[in-house]
Amino acid sequence: MNNITPNILLIVADQWRGDCLGFMGHPAVQTPNLDRIFARSISFTQAYSAVPSCIAARAALLTGLSQKTHGRIGYMDGITWNYQNTLPGLLAQAGYHTHCAGKMHVHPARNLLGFHSVDLHDGYLHFERKQNKNYSLADDYLQWFREKAGFDADLTDAGVGCNGYSVHPWPYEERFHPTNWVTTKSIDFLRRRDPGKPFFLKVSYHRPHPPLDPPQSFLDQYLGMNIPDPVTAPWSEHDQLQDRGYDCPVPAAKDQITLARKAYYAQISHIDNQINRLTHALIEFGVWDNTIIVFTSDHGDMLYDHNRVAKSLPYNGSARIPLLFRIPENSGIDKAMRPQEPVELRDLLPTLLDYAGIPIPHRIEGMSLKPVIEGKISGWREYLHGEHASGVHSNHWITNGRDMYVWYSQTGKEQLFDLTADPYNRNDLFSANPERVKKWRDVLIRELSGREEGYTANGKLITGRQPWSIRPFLEKK
What we know:
Blueprint: E1 7-14, H1 32-38, E2 42-43, E3 47-48, H2 54-63, H3 67-70, H4 87-93, E4 97-102, E5 117-120, H5 126-130, H6 140-149, H7 178-192, E6 199-208, H8 216-223, H9 254-284, E7 291-297, H10 316-319, E8 323-326, E9 343-344, H11 348-356, H12 370-373, E10 384-388, E11 395-399, E12 403-408, E13 414-418, H13 434-448, E14 456-457, E15 460-461, H14 472-476
Parallel strand pairs: 1-6, 1-7, 3-9, 4-5, 4-6
Antiparallel strand pairs: 2-8, 7-8, 10-11, 11-12, 12-13, 14-15
């Protein structure tokens, strides 16, 4: 790249599966705008969210820390965010004008985390509503929406659950949809930013996370399409669908499952359409040629694969994410690259600091992807450790991008998958490969040694130990 400090556009979608990109070969999903931007750029094929749910994933992304240090090993709201270094804070200190439009999912809800400004829309915000507050004070979109609608509109007006898999199209004009609002606010920042500074803009979409309420025109694109059925396997075919609560139904009838999957794809196509608005704005404001664009998500969605929905599980539908980089064309990188190194959300902070020419704090646990992108690395991390506290389904997993070993800490169940031959976790090789199982079990034992939960003793995994939802040191802050 030239010596001019690059602008950075970070696009984060919520609950977007790693396989759901047209140019990466998905048989149904239509993403023509992302295809155009990233088909000749860098697409990491083995990118993961080490703790695949909203809050913990954002902690990794914004701090560059692993779950061992940022302390969030499951979904737990209402715990104050108090970290020494954050990506927007470090960029702001180095002279960037920083802004986020959309989802933050931090606590307190209006914690800036180092951004100069935030246009906030976190979705339904269970925690804020339960505090008996004026919810619109914690959500800029909802206040705007009600002013535009002229009545007391709400996010639940489509009649579908905020964590459910029933479907109903968005009942208002498309321009009022949260996805459009996030885009509009992002473009407004590009208009009013300080032109004398490089910018860091985080565009954080709440969708394709439920509610499954895409605008009708995008749902129509899929209604007549034959799409693949969910993945099933002998180890999962008799499992029961998870209960998401009375207000968030998970339909079990085949036609409703198919409709839910189509609505999820429609949400993706809607975001892809809005990303084209961002592309137009970058070109019109004259910053396209010097802007790094990154597209990723916080985690995936099982989307009925293996009779499961949502996230928090170790399987690729839940834990694998898209991670795409467009480096300005004058950098010399102008061809399609598909790195296979195992990478994680915590790697974004050091990578973007590296490209901005900003020193990476020594406490950061992520690794800069710049050498991988530029083909100048001879080695990489051997594996990633992921986990999620989730009651009886609490799990730990190890992957090097080729093998995946899974241990359910409350039941002792173990699994092994060959991701190269079996990216959808169909074939559990646990019984057939005891040596490979032992290799990765020993790795997990080393990872968990010394954890306060007492997961290991005498070189063995201990089943039934209660996961900590948050690290004790965070409680003391």
